[in-house]
Write a structure and sequence with these properties.
Layout (H helix, E strand, L loop, with lengths): L35 E7 L5 H8 L6 E7 L3 H14 L8 H13 L2 E2 L1 H24 L7 E2 L5 H15 L8 H13 L6 H13 L9 H10 L12 E2 L5 E7 L2 E7 L9 H4 L11 E2 L2 E2 L3 H19 E3 L31 H4 L10 E3 L2 E6 L17 E6 L11 H4 E10 L9 H17 L2 E3 L8 E6 L3
Parallel strand pairs: 1-2, 1-13, 2-12, 4-12, 13-14
Antiparallel strand pairs: 3-5, 6-7, 8-9, 10-11, 14-16, 15-16
Length: 465
């Protein structure tokens, strides 16, 4: 493989993470402080860590998550996925919410019904962002975009309107996807089935992802469709996975809208390769009985059960929240009120309103910061020694430097995503990346924890000055 295509498979836009969801406050070395807990996410790409961290909160905990992404297109998709996660049980049952979330999360093509849900969400989010431009207020207690610059919020509105009213002659996602596969494989394209099988059996399976089935993985590599949980036609472009990339063409810069994300590692990594339910990992004749799609569905459903337990509808804020932390069982938290028939589409897709009709998750707030804000945080007093936990993705490690020590609270945890699931890299490159991560962390005043058993994340703790 040529050097120019070393990470072509991972793409230049991080739509999902290259490792499972983690509770970022569940670190043996981190001492939880009283009062608000602050977590900084740098380039997480999706809300898996946010949702997982919420499950570990006690009733008295308050959590403030600060999110930095490298593009407004990723910020828009983060907002979309959080919007879907916070749907009230009156608007969407837990099971349907799980299916719609995973479909939007990991499919290049979605069902027509899901497209209508996406368009409705885009309209609501667009209106809410527009309102913050004039009043600088929050459209929802849990979602805060007021710290973004005005031009960035304008860009969000533009993106949401593009999702709401896609081009009349949309790009064929299948052609766009196939073009990426051709570019990535080059002369190996005609034997791509063998390439797919090799990446799965000799890379993903060897790195602990044996639960990813060959049938589902190969289908995703061919078409970009990872989750098919309901019968229907998956033929409508998922606008939230399309973005614009600028190319130099004969001396001119040309903007091309297409799919520029991961085409090798798969969206199964975020929710589908780990589970505490050992029954889901059982094998028969040395083959996994359940698939990564099954595990993703169970895990996401459990996360949404936790949100439903901790949250309340903004229309019913006087309903008290149960004084307990969220468990992991997918059976114990669902009530008869939550499991109900999905409302008619006319009820689900009402006209946009000023306030977002979403769950208000008690004590949880997510604030979005500008893409260029990481190196500016140490210059502002409000962020000094603020963050109890910091996460950084593999794609954003180059932005980390010694200024991390200025914004990390005493005994803070630092979690850095490694390159274990960047399949185009050699073992030597993966090892070199891990060594560089350790070097950056130590220069920033962090030391490796005693438990480094995972090759997916490197975990460090803040040294006491």
């Amino acid at each position: 493989m040529s050097a120019g295509r070393t990470v072509e498979g991972a793409g230049c836009v991080t739509w999902w993470g290259f490792g499972p969801a983690r509770d970022l406050l569940n670190s043996e070395s981190m001492v939880k402080s009283d009062g608000e807990l602050n977590v900084l996410l740098v380039g997480s790409g999706d809300p898996r860590h946010i949702l997982k961290t919420i499950t570990g909160l006690t009733h008295s905990d308050t959590l403030h998550v600060w999110v930095i992404e490298n593009s407004m297109e990723v910020v828009a998709r983060q907002l979309l996925l959080l919007y879907l996660s916070l749907q009230t049980p009156e608007n969407m049952s837990l099971h349907k919410k799980t299916e719609v979330f995973l479909e939007v999360f990991g499919n290049s093509e979605i069902r027509k019904e899901t497209e209508e849900t996406l368009k409705h969400a885009a309209a609501q989010l667009s209106l809410s962002i527009t309102n913050t431009l004039s009043s600088n207020s929050h459209a929802h207690p849990c979602l805060d975009t007021s710290l973004l610059k005005f031009k960035e919020r304008d860009e969000l509105v533009r993106i949401f309107k593009l999702w709401e009213r896609p081009p009349s002659v949309p790009a064929s996602v299948r052609k766009v996807w196939d073009a990426r596969v051709r570019q990535h494989l080059g002369t190996r394209y005609d034997s791509r089935q063998g390439c797919f099988d090799w990446d799965l059996s000799m890379k993903l399976h060897q790195r602990g992802c044996g639960v990813i089935s060959k049938h589902q993985y190969v289908k995703w590599r061919e078409s970009g469709v990872a989750f098919e949980m309901r019968e229907g036609l998956y033929q409508t472009a998922n606008q939230s996975l399309l973005s614009t990339r600028v190319f130099n063409h004969r001396g001119d810069q040309v903007a091309v809208r297409g799919y520029w994300g991961d085409i090798v590692s798969s969206p199964y990594l975020s929710f589908g390769i780990e589970t505490e339910n050992k029954d889901l990992l059982k094998k028969h004749n040395n083959q996994h009985v359940k698939t990564a799609q099954d595990i993703s569905e169970v895990n996401v459903l459990a996360l949404f059960e936790c949100l439903a337990t901790r949250g309340s509808s903004l229309l019913n804020e006087d309903v008290p929240n149960p004084p307990s932390s969220c468990g992991q069982s997918t059976d114990s938290l669902i009530t008869e009120e939550i499991i109900q028939n999905d409302p008619p589409s006319s009820q689900t897709h009402s006209e946009p309103t000023q306030a977002l009709d979403l769950l208000n998750v008690s004590g949880v707030k997510v604030s979005f910061l500008s893409p260029d804000s990481l190196n500016k945080l140490p210059l502002k007093n409000k962020y000094r020694k603020l963050f109890n936990s910091i996460f950084c993705s593999a794609s954003m490690v180059h932005q980390l430097d010694s200024s991390l020590r200025e914004i990390a609270a005493p005994d803070a945890a630092l979690l850095i995503e490694l390159a274990n699931f960047l399949l185009d890299l050699s073992k030597e490159q993966v090892s070199g990346f891990a060594a560089r991560v350790k070097e950056i962390a130590e220069e920033s005043g962090f030391t490796a924890t005693h438990d480094q058993s995972s090759d997916t994340y490197a975990v460090f703790t803040r040294k006491n000055d």
